[in-house]
Amino acid sequence: MNAAGTGAQARAAAQDGAPAPRTGTARALLRAARPKQWLKNLLVFAAPGAAGVLFDPAPLAWALVAFAAFCLAASGTYLLNDVRDAEADRAHERKRHRPVASGAVPVPLALGAGAAAVAASLGAAGAAAAATGRYALLAVLVAYLVLTTAYTYGLKRVTIADIVAVAGCHVLRALAGGVAVGVPFTSWFLIVVSLAALLVVVGKREAELRNPRAGDGRTALRGYTRSYLVQIRTMASAAMIVTYCLWALDGQGQGGVPPFHAASIVPFIVFVLRYHLLVDRGVGEEPEEIALRDRPLQLCLLSLAALVGLGVYLG
């Protein structure tokens, strides 16, 4: 059953006074939770992986808790945001097919599920904090929820602030994994993650500016020009490559350490080049779709992860 059919059945059932089919409503609720967006939360494994502790049962378990907490938080905020924007979405050519706007998911159900997901995320982070004595994960999750709420209710309409807010959410995901496990952050890690987040968000805005329908009429887009976004993208990627190279080459040749980190520079740069090409083609408005569908990009990421992993766990 497709989404349009589910929405039509829900609206017809509402008009007849009968409840919508449970199976269709459950599927629509799952779609409204946007599970594809959970891909972004893989960032929580970056710091534990770079620290070489992901093969240890306890750190892996706490990283998984952080991942689950951020998935719940993200889905909860998406549901609550869709309820808030339902009326405007119904007048939009593309957004009117969203489950809440189309009627496939009743507003009370979306509100309840969204609030429950956010509460569950806080509960998971709180339980992890109580068990480990590290309350930083709970603090980072709260900061994420505050930032996403601020973005929804105002920052997304402010030029530059919208980019900083979304990039900040990515950085908080990366921080969450480190604080959940209790590993320290290096300046290299923080700089590379921050610049990578900026690069992805700017690429998304640039693609939206090329395709107004993709941008959904974002108010903040009116303040950007393509040349300005290209400059930011170029600056961010150049600084990120230099920083990564400095980290990868730091200490090479000392103590017979295998040069896996140095070798990882190649897939890292190819990844950046490939991403720039995709953005220039105008397909960067959905970064998660690029990661799921573009085979060359996936190959670069797998090669990068393998080489960094070998450098961490064998070095």
Describe the SSE topology.
Blueprint: H1 3-16, H2 22-32, H3 46-50, H4 57-84, H5 86-90, H6 99-102, H7 107-132, H8 136-153, H9 161-181, H10 187-210, H11 226-249, H12 260-263, H13 265-280, H14 287-293, H15 295-314
Helix pairs in contact: 4-7, 4-8, 4-9, 7-8, 8-9, 9-10, 10-11, 11-13, 13-15
Order of helices and strands: HHHHHHHHHHHHHHH
Estimated helix fraction: over 70%
C-alpha geometry? globular
Could you describe the largest sheet, including whether it forms a barrel?
Answer: none
SS elements, strand count: 0
Averaged pLDDT, please?
Answer: 85
Return residue spans where pLDDT drops below 50 for at least 5 consecutive residues.
1-20
End-to-end gap: 51 Å
Strand content: under 5%
Put simply, the count of helices is: 15
Tell me about this structure.
- It is found in: Membrane.
- This is Decaprenyl-phosphate phosphoribosyltransferase.
- The chain crosses the membrane at residues 61-80, 100-129, 135-153, 160-179, 185-203, 228-249, 261-277, 297-314.
- It is a multi-pass membrane protein.
- Its EC number is 2.4.2.45.
- By secondary structure, this protein is an all-alpha fold.
- The protein has helices at 3-16, 22-32, 46-50, 57-84, 86-90, 99-102, 107-132, 136-153, 161-181, 187-210, 226-249, 260-263, 265-280, 287-293, 295-314.
- Helix 4 (57-84) runs antiparallel to helix 7 and helix 4 packs parallel to helix 8 (136-153).
